[in-house]
Amino acid sequence: MSIDSLAVSFGIAASGMKAQSTRLRVVAENMANANSTSETPGGDPYRRKTVVFASVLDRALKSDTVEVKRIGRDQSDFRLEYNPGHPGADERGYVKLPNVNTLVESMDMREAGRSYDANLNVMQQARGMLGRTIDMLRG
Predict the structure, then answer these.
(1) In this predicted model, which residue has the larger pLDDT, 6 or 65?
(2) What is residue 137's predicted lDDT score, i.e. its pLDDT?
(3) Half-sphere exposure of 51 (CA within 13 A, CB side)
(4) Across the strands, what pairs with 16?
(5) Residue 1: pLDDT band with limits 50, 70, 90
C-alpha cells in the first residue's frame, strides 16, 4: 500500500467521522427536544431534524468522500394530546407534540455510532500500516 493510498484512507475515514459526528449531534438535539411543545395556543412544537448525506469528489484525494448535504426538517404530522390546561393547547384542548420518536432516534444514534467507530478503525489500521512502512524504511 502506497503513502498516497494511506492518505486517501485517512481522508475518506475522516470525512465519514465528521459526517457521523454531525448526525449524532442532530439525533441528540432531537432527543433533547422530544417533549418540547409550544407555549403559544395552537402553536407548533419542535420539529424533528434530519441529516442528508452526499458523496463529494475530493480533488486533492482524487476520491469520493461523504459530507452533510443539508440538515432538514421532518415534515411528518405532529402527535396530538388532549390537555386543555396546557398553555399550548388549541381551542379544542389539544396540544401538538413533536414528531420525534425516541425509539427511532435511539436506533439512529446507535447506527451513527457504529459508522463512526468503523471509520475510526479504518484510521487506526491506516496509521498502523504507515507506522510499519516507516519502520521498514528505517531498517
Answers:
(1) 65
(2) 86
(3) 21
(4) none
(5) low
